[in-house]
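Design job #97: recover the sequence.
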């Protein structure tokens, strides 16, 4: 808090030992509230002074203490609950980042962030068990926010099996939650569907997230587009031409959301330039791999060949085109050592997937 009296109170508690700080909180507050405030203050002080692992443990203790109090409260206390959970996730993430730096950059995020994830799942389980209050005052209204915090942690840890195990309470339907929480939820659900190969569901969820994110939140829209662009490119390649062209992002869109990594990729995709496509993938590999979309983009290579074959077909201007024409087109793109059998295999796959309408005749 920037409030001077509150900050002075936090600093005063931080200067004392845990026992002394706890005793002072217990004198001022009743029951577990003393634990909540004491650990939260010590966590804030520890984070400020750079003792991140210690701060993370205090923040976990604060959340655990609040859970004991929360059982007898209503949804009016959810903002306090949210603040504690967000602070826990952030300080745990910072603590693991510090640990990685100390280990020479080795990605070992199995400490504070994993412990925070366990606490979050416990919080979600309590949200599901609220049967004492009616729907209007139920603590279950906070379930989606808690689930989103879990998603952020599990994606960071790459433990997607936990993402799929998240369950929301039946008392509140998904459409009744605040729009901001629904946008975040649909974003993560779209990413899961993308990784599972369910591109239609991924496109639906990611489009909902993008369309309902305010234009002022350009960074969030940019993040969504990193996943929505490859999903749409892959999904609409077997569709009619107008729909297929509509799925290709314009250069103005890429410039607006500062996504130069996709510029050469989209240009190569549209022109059927296989060499430029490979160069764009290699140049921005770290960007694509870091967002788990590299393999998805690599699947588009067959679509690039389709666009190349279409250009060759238009140049030839005949209803029947010899295989040698397509072999020459592929070799002109830099694949000098490609064999006719390989090109025929590509064409057969394109026909099988519906991207090319035609047949191969051996005469």
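Job complete. Output follows.
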């Amino acid at each position: 808090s920037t409030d001077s009296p509150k900050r002075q109170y936090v600093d005063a508690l931080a200067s004392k030992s845990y026992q002394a700080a706890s005793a002072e909180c217990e004198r001022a507050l009743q029951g577990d509230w003393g634990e909540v405030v004491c650990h939260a203050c010590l966590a804030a002080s520890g984070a400020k002074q750079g003792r991140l692992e210690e701060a993370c443990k205090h923040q976990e203790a604060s959340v655990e203490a609040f859970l004991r109090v929360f059982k007898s409260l209503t949804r009016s206390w959810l903002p306090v609950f949210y603040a504690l959970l967000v602070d826990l996730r952030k300080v745990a993430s910072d603590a693991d980042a510090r640990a990685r730096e100390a280990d020479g950059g080795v990605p070992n995020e199995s400490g504070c962030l994993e412990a925070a994830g366990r606490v979050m799942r416990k919080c979600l389980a309590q949200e599901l068990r609220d049967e004492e209050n009616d729907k209007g005052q139920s603590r279950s209204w906070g379930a989606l926010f808690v689930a989103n915090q879990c998603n952020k942690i599990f994606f960071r840890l790459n433990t997607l099996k936990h993402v799929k195990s998240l369950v929301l309470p039946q008392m509140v339907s998904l459409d009744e939650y605040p729009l901001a929480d629904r946008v975040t939820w649909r974003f993560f659900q779209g990413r899961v569907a993308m990784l599972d190969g369910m591109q239609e569901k991924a496109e639906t969820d990611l489009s909902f997230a993008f369309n309902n994110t305010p234009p002022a939140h350009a960074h969030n829209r940019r993040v969504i587009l990193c996943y929505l662009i490859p999903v749409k490119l892959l999904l609409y390649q077997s569709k009619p031409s107008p729909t297929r062209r509509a799925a290709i992002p314009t250069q103005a869109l890429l410039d607006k959301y500062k996504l130069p990594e996709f510029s050469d990729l989209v240009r190569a995709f549209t022109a059927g330039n296989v060499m430029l496509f490979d160069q764009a993938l290699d140049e921005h590999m770290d960007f694509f791999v870091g967002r788990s979309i590299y393999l998805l983009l690599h699947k588009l290579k067959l679509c690039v060949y389709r666009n190349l074959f279409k250009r060759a077909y238009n140049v030839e201007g005949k209803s029947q085109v010899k295989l040698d024409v397509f072999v020459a087109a592929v070799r002109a793109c830099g694949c000098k050592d490609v064999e006719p059998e390989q090109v025929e295999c590509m064409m057969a796959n394109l026909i099988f997937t519906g991207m090319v309408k035609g047949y191969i005749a051996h005469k």
